[in-house]
Each structure stands twice: as structure tokens, then as C-alpha cells.
Amino acid sequence: MGNASQNSNRHDDGADLDALRDEYQIVYQKAFQSRPYNAPNDAKPYNYKGATIAALVLSFGGILLPVLSIAGFILGIVCIIQGRKRGEGIVFAIAALVISVAVLILTVMATGSLIFLIIPFPVVAPILWYFR
């Protein structure tokens, strides 16, 4: 009877289950708790300031009012310059620049097509004839 109670904490090959459990916990802590979500150890959290988010919002606001897109472009350039000096993330500022340029290009294209729709063809025809 005494041997049965002593063998209850032993594995098939005689290893102590408590030692195996401790070893498993150490391996688990090293594998998962030191690097959450498998992030590299030298990863820095992104530090986005309010100005970069404002530049992004202004760039999207250019869809409604193109002047806002120009303001978002200028603010995006300022955020990139400041971000490089401080060593901060500039991803939102670059996104603001790209979006504001795309919105401005679409605005110019839409304005050009509206001009040709509003102005009657006899007025536009001589101009097109001149630039052929």
C-alpha cells in the first residue's frame, strides 16, 4: 500500500510530475510571456500624436471641401518633419499626404468634367479646335 501512494506522483519512466510541471511552466513563460503576440523584443509602440491624426482627418475632409485636403497635406508635411526629428512614427502623416493628393486629383478631374457639362458645346468647340 505504501508503494502505491509513493508511485502516484511518478511518471512512467520515474520522472517526478512536479519537476515536469515546473519545467513546463518555465518553458511556457519563456515562449509566450516574454514576447506578447510574438512581437520582436526591440519593437517600440507607435507614438502617434494628435497632429498626425488631424492631418489624416483633414485629408479625408477634402472630399467635402477641397481646402481641407490642402490643409491636411501641409499638416502632413509638418508632421513628417517633426516625426523624423523626434523619432516617432510617421505612418499616419504619410497616409495623410497620399490621401490628400488623391483627393485633390479627383477634385480637379471632377471640376474639369463639370465645366464641360455646364458650358455648352459651341463655346468649348473653338477652344478644343485651337488646341488640336
What does this structure look like?
The protein is elongated, with a radius of gyration of 32 Å. The chain is 71% helix and 0% strand. It is an all-alpha fold and 132 residues long.
Structure described in brief:
The chain is mainly α. Helix content is 71%, strand content 0%.
- Structural class determined from secondary elements: mainly alpha
Number of strands: 0
Q: How large a portion of the residues is in β-strands, by DSSP E? A: under 5%
What is the terminal-to-terminal distance?
Answer: 108 Å
Mean pLDDT over the full residue set? 77
The low-pLDDT segments are none
What Rg do the Cα atoms give?
32 Å
Number of helices: 6
What coarse outline follows from CA principal-axis ratios?
A: elongated
Q: Helix content range of the residues, please?
A: over 70%
- Count of distinct structural domains: 2
Largest sheet: none
SSE layout and pairing:
Layout: H1 2-7, H2 17-33, H3 50-61, H4 66-86, H5 91-118, H6 121-130
Helix pairs in contact: 3-4, 3-5, 4-5
What attributes characterize this protein structure?
mainly alpha, 2 domains, single chain, 132 residues
